[in-house]
What we know:
The chain is an alpha/beta fold. It contains 20 helices and 30 strands. Strand 21 and strand 22 (461-466) form a beta hairpin.
Amino acid sequence: MESVSHENRKFSPPAAFAENALISSMEEYAFLYEKSIEDPEAFWAEAAEDLHWFKKWDSVLDASGAPFYKWFSGARTNVCYNCVDRHLDGPNRNKAAIIWEGEPGETRVLTYQDVHREVCKFANGLKQIGIKKGDRVAIYLPMVPELALALLACARIGAVHTVIFAGFSAESIRDRVNDCGAKCVITADGGWRRGRVLPLKSIVDEALEGAETVTDVVIVKRAHGEPFPCHVKEGRDHWYHRLVQEQPIDCPCEEMEAEDMLFLLYTSGTTGKPKGIIHTTAGYMVYTQQTTKYIFDMKPEDVYWCTADVGWVTGHSYIVYGPMQCAATQIVYEGAPDTPNEGRFWDIIEKYRATIFYTAPTAIRAFMKWGDQWPEKYNLSSLRLLGTVGEPINPEAWMWYHKVIGGEKCPIVDTWWQTETGGHMLTPMPGATPTKPGCATVPFFGVEPAILTDDGKEVAAGILAIKQPWPGMLRGIYGDEQRFKDTYWCKWGGQYYFPGDGARRDEDGYIWILGRVDDVVNVSGHRIGTAELESVFVEHQDVAESAVVGVSHEIKGQGLIAFVTVIKGRSHDDQLSKELVAMIDKRIGKFARPERILFSSDLPKTRSGKIMRRLLRDIAEGKELGNTTTLADPSVVEELRRQYEES
Length: 647
């Protein structure tokens, strides 16, 4: 795969940040990194000493059943204990753990002592309705405090949670509940999104019409006063507030074996049957604590805000488990970033004096599209560190984030990882790594990346591979060992983990993610990552977002189709098309010119904000559209198809 990026800007960590950082130089990073690769067992054993263990491990890494690796075999611990109980003996017991704001504007603050009390009551309530260690509990809640409490309550008693984003359809819930055999569903009467109420309980009722394993449903009352209209089924459904109100305020933690299952999290299911990714207790716990500690340079006085939903892995690892193990104070917000207006996020940052802000490139591009006037109305000077997650960020969005939100004083950690990896894999160290816009830079401790050809030769640009196991790694796909091996260990003789992304290594040894291997196109013999073409388009001052897909071409093998959205208030016409083509000619070459450029008001995205390029390929090739249940707004696809057919 050839490199078509020419990004060479480099930004060193601000001196004021570096001098107080946990890792303040690349020499210090290199020393620890080398130690983590040469003797991973000693490195991770030392890291694990940060946490509480009922019983220490007999071995750190057991590779005898590879690729079914085991970490901290023989140990017993509890993730909820390390997130909550461990903080109760000192001043952190009275420290704010969660600062919650609902979309309509109400607020709640829970200290670590409050969290402990509420989690114990929730856990006792679950035990009362018969939930025990190993039972699967599906959670379909809005971003209310009870969502984090539900995860922690399950972890406390050893129940396996599977969170389903509160935006998925009844069919998607049913698929996941049936696949894992969930015994209980925790939901709410409703949730707020863009000023309207989503009828979550009604959706669950529809889903459970075809689910035979569910015996109990717990309903959180999101409304104040009367609940949103919802049916309560006698003998199955329980109001949360009634279930927990008389429960004891203490619940002993289950002593969990290191490889006991902590949670299942289903991938989006954009193609085929959704995959239930298995994460277990000890390795995931250690890895999320260490990545949070170092990548966010977490300090006791920080106010941290990750804007993800707990329905996705980012919310598991970097809202619930990682930050709470580090005794963080964090903001949790329920609603949309543009409700009641496009200044909502900046208002929250100003109000609570947030110091760390972690969001997705798709959100950053939306902020750009809405205009600088929104963040400029607010005081964002409390921010000291920014982060991005979810997909590669194009350089121009990175620069906007750096200048407009960070005031050119905040390091940006551009984190690459996956549901399957459990935590950050490639990322700058904020106090040490000189960053490049759009570049994931260097591996985290214990992560040994390689860039290979299909036959395993090391190259500068090719397919990303991870050469050795790490504690946060997935342990399998629920109920399907063969699919696990076929999906993630199918290349290079099964020796290396295959994440499915293309990558390149630059002259500084930094790694750039080029997008999914499926998103690499071959135009007249030139292999090009679509992410790099998209980056060229969004450099144009009028372009907000772009997505490029490859389609069959009888001469070139593949041709390129570009879907482009423009910044609010800007126009699009033939002149803009000509300017975009000229940019491709200059930055990449005439061979990479798109066959067509289609301007649209929006692009099809999943509810986690990722662009569904598969559907764009289907539109461009005139195919029947596949599964669209994961789309945030299915009408976008129909409008794009109509536009494409008429253009």
